[in-house]
Amino acid sequence: MAEDRLMRVRYTYESTDFDQLNALFAGVLRREDITDPILKKEHIDNIARFNSVFSSNVFQDEYAVLYELMVRRRMTTGKWELMEPVIEENRQLIMSAPQIKIDKLKDDYTNSDIYDAFISATKRVFDEICDTPFMGT
Q1: Per-residue pLDDT tens for 71-84?
Q2: What is the pLDDT of residues 73-123, one digit of tens each?
Q3: Is the torsion defined by CA of 46, 35, 129, 84 positive or negative?
Q4: DSSP H or E segment with residue 66
Q5: What residues contact 116, with CB distance under 8 A and at least 6 apart?
Q6: What is the domain partition of the chain in residue ranges?
Q7: Tens of pLDDT, residues 12-41
Q8: Phi, psi at residue 30, to the nearest 5°?
Q9: Which of 32, 72, 82, 79 is nearest to 50 (CA)?
Q10: Which of 17, 90, 12 is nearest to 58 (CA)?
């Protein structure tokens, strides 16, 4: 999604990685504001820590898109309906980003449906992450 920053594919996920990825992203990405002042401070600390540890997008597929929303667009809190237009305006970047393997969907979808299927999968991951209870730092 970020055309001004070189993105390199560094790792392909194994099935056991997704719980850890969801937990990592759940410390930063939330659907609603956190109201508890202590947890809110921990959320802010998590955002800063995430941004410093992951200064470039090393994530794959749906997580690469969510990373760009969180880090480049600073959208760490919000409903999917807020994020979806930002994703849509970056459609061409998403389709050509090296971290995103659209080809894996070609067997199940027509060319016109592949992007929509990928965005649906990204929304599913977003929902899984946001449904994870915020545990703090």
Answers
A1: 999 999 999 999 99
A2: 999 999 999 999 999 999 888 888 888 888 777 777 777 788 888 999 999
A3: negative
A4: helix 61-67
A5: 109
A6: 18-131
A7: 778 888 999 999 999 999 999 999 999 999
A8: -135, 150
A9: 72
A10: 12
